[in-house]
Amino acid sequence: MRILITNDDGVTSNGILTLAKRLSRNHEVAIVAPESERSAVGHAITIHFPIWVKELSICDYAKVYSTTGTPADCVKLGIDELFKAPDLVISGVNRGPNLGTDIIYSGTVSGAMEGAMSGYPAIAVSSADYANPNYDSAAEFTARFIERFDFSTLPPFTSLNINVPALSYEKIKGWKFTKQSKRRWKDFFEPRKDPFGRTYYWMMGDVIEDDDDPDVDYKAVKSGYVSITPITVFLTNEKYLDELRSNLKPQDFLFPLS
Amino acid sequence: MRILITNDDGVTSNGILTLAKRLSRNHEVAIVAPESERSAVGHAITIHFPIWVKELSICDYAKVYSTTGTPADCVKLGIDELFKAPDLVISGVNRGPNLGTDIIYSGTVSGAMEGAMSGYPAIAVSSADYANPNYDSAAEFTARFIERFDFSTLPPFTSLNINVPALSYEKIKGWKFTKQSKRRWKDFFEPRKDPFGRTYYWMMGDVIEDDDDPDVDYKAVKSGYVSITPITVFLTNEKYLDELRSNLKPQDFLFPLS
Known about the structure:
The structure is a homodimer.
Chain A (H helix, E strand, L loop, with lengths): L1 E5 L7 H10 L4 E7 L16 E6 L6 E5 L3 H12 L5 E8 L6 H4 L1 H11 L4 E6 L7 H14 L9 E7 L9 E4 L6 E10 L5 E10 L8 H6 L2 E8 L5 H10 L11
Parallel strand pairs in A: 1-2, 1-5, 2-4, 5-6, 6-7, 8-11
Antiparallel strand pairs in A: 3-4, 7-11, 9-10
Helix pairs in contact in A: 1-5, 2-4
């Protein structure tokens, strides 16, 4: 396969290079990734400024381009200009988990969503421990997974969010298809004064893991399984939409005016 | 109500000030917004750098704070530190539409999603014409809407994405509950050389509007109606998840290893 890889930890991060090297054994690989870390950029794109691109000679197993853009920019550039029509887009391996509402903030996941929106099979891969990631096992799982999974079953605008436990490969118990959990962060801010007397804040947070569903993403990872969640870019809450449509009628409020 | 307002066009943009002024007639309003434009930042948050906050005296109808953060940061800061527990979070009025896959890229929509994730009723409001926005009509609609809509019906983690046609208020035909469409952008890049010989790219795009569903967001707006789409932060493609679970079993591939 011709595989386009991006990430949000930057083009020289161990996660992306480990993955590219492993996949290059059986595939043609190109890396298009941010020149520096762009974590938690969400699905940002660069529309009011241009994007600089540099070809790097940092390895012999992949073409490598660094850009001043975000992961979503990199996928667009890879598909449209630098590598053209890939067979597969992979974003990762990310340092740390992308579970529950992390997905909403994640530059890594946005890289996969961008691939799906552009019409290509796409996956995001994360090693689920920020302090002690295991890129080798995540790369190994990814390499085996993509050769066995039938990407033609992926519906339009849908990608896979994969979280691999940060264990050595032989300690991983297996894999599960999961639902995105409501795992989320309770934020708080630590206010400080800068040397010029101005107030600034550091964002901190505690994770909340209280989902009742036994088959959600973080529970699979905690029990030693790879979590594979199919995710879409369509956010409509359809059940609530049906309720709204049946309960509220145009005459109920607002229009006609006066 | 006590209403927290943010946006992604910046704290001094006409969209946010028009909305705050209109709402201040009947409500207590605080603005916490980026100091400059942060469009298309997606759901970015600021985790590796601190966020500076300044209180501004630019109007007499609202408390105003500018921050160096993103819209999602601003909502977190507003809720946790600057304004505390609002009755409602509003992100907007955005300059230009947030329809179809725009939602994924939109800093404005991310402001509302952040409010919903934090457990507060939240809406995003956009005036659906970038070149000729009509903030007065969007603010007028919002003011009337929030006084009539029963926010207690909103499910957890769900917010409303509202797009108001950029028409004068009396020309708006009404409102509709809609589904997020598959309206999307076909990107292309214009390569250039900078004065130092380095390659850079401008991202351009053409919009694709080919959704078959008659009840989607952009069709409501085009026919002169306000589009109101309930959106969730849970991205699982549940139908496909069910298919995957019934078609693929652990023994089918990958584990046990080797």
